[in-house]
């Protein structure tokens, strides 16, 4: 074999050796997307706000459109930034520098949260209408982000996917297009502490399937109705009649400020929330 061939072979083996060493160095593999450490939100706590009706008059489970607009303005002026609940899973990737995340959640999917008027416009006094108007006012600083916990088969037609039955799919697809999160509140607003594990799986699987099919989203978040939890929390992930589901984040009905996802105290099945009533605004934010 000629000397230049030996030299070429030696050079090839040398390059191959160094490539092998580099690729197999610890930590050289791509980082997983589901991570709470690198680039995660680093502050200790953030608010997950809980709304129900957006209507008049103000009440225990009702926030007026005027007060909801004031809530958004106060949050904006105090350097909060809206995110969906599922953004916890990425450590709030995309959070603007110097901002604190705020997750606005809406339970029970009443028409007061999302309503179309007869002329096809979104009602400016429903929750989605208020959010859309505020985004249009601050297009670069306030994206349309919120998480809606939706029920489907209750005995109250106004609470089943925002009422207006013929517009259910249109509404869920519109929320998706605007960047907001569609999430489960069980299928029938079930008290998970009172039903069997099998029935809980049935309700959750059925809810996830319907909401996913109509919205095009992967459903990963749940709020337990009335804050009642099953004795067996394994029902939050599983399969029922060949319908697989995986609810990665589960909200309480109260609890206060939520610890950040990189905290050792973080429990994805017990996300604290703050009810948006005057006493809670005073307690946690010093405002009415």
Automatic annotation (TrEMBL):
The entry's keywords: Signal
Cellular localization per UniProt: Secreted
DNA-binding listed as a keyword: no
Cited Pfam families: Polysacc_deac_1
Cellular compartments per GO CC: extracellular region
Lineage: superkingdom: Bacteria
Biological processes per GO annotation: carbohydrate metabolic process
Molecular function per GO: hydrolase activity, acting on carbon-nitrogen (but not peptide) bonds
Descriptive protein name: NodB homology domain-containing protein
High-level lineage: Bacteria, Bacillati, Saganbacteria
